[in-house]
Amino acid sequence: MFKQLWATKHPHASHEAADGLGLQRALGPWGLTALGIGAVIGGGIFVITGQAAADHAGPAIMLSFVLAAVCCAFCAMAYAEFAAMVPVSGSAYTYTYATFGELAAWFIGWMLVLEYGVSASAVAVSWTGYFLSLLEHFNIHLPAALVSAPL
C-alpha cells in the first residue's frame, strides 16, 4: 500500500495517456484578457504596495519591485522547464506526480486549492476597504454589520 502512494508516472506515459484528450478552447478574447490581467497584476500589488513603502522600504520601493521581479522570473523559468518536460495539463499536480509520486501530488493539489481560496478571500477583504473609502467620498456610509469581517 505504501509503495503505491509513492508511485510515480513517467512524463511520457502522462503524455501518451493525454493523446486525444486535449483541452478544449473555451475562453474568448474577453475571458483571456481578464485572466491575463488578473494573473499578471494580481490583487496584492494594490493592497501591500503602500504599506510596504511607508513601513519598510521607503524610497527603495523600486529596488523592492526589481528584487520581486527577479524572484518571479526564477519561478516562471522553473514552471517553463517543467512544462517543457511534462507537456500535459495539470501544472504543479502533474509535475509533482511525475517526480515525487501520488501522495506528494495529492498534497500539492489540495494545497493549491486552499491557496486559491485564501488568496481570493484576502483580496476581497482588501478591496472592501478600498471600496468603502470610495463610498465615503460620496458621503455613503454603510453599517458596520455589512462591512466588518466576521472575526
UniProtKB/TrEMBL annotation:
The chain crosses the membrane at residues 30-48, 60-80. The keyword Membrane applies. It comes from Xanthomonas perforans. It is a multi-pass membrane protein. GO terms for cellular component: membrane. GO terms for molecular function: amino acid transmembrane transporter activity. InterPro entries: AA/rel_permease1. Keywords: Membrane, Transmembrane, Transmembrane helix, Transport. It holds the Pfam family AA_permease_2. It is found in: Membrane. The keyword Cell membrane does not apply. Its main location: membrane. This is Amino acid permease.
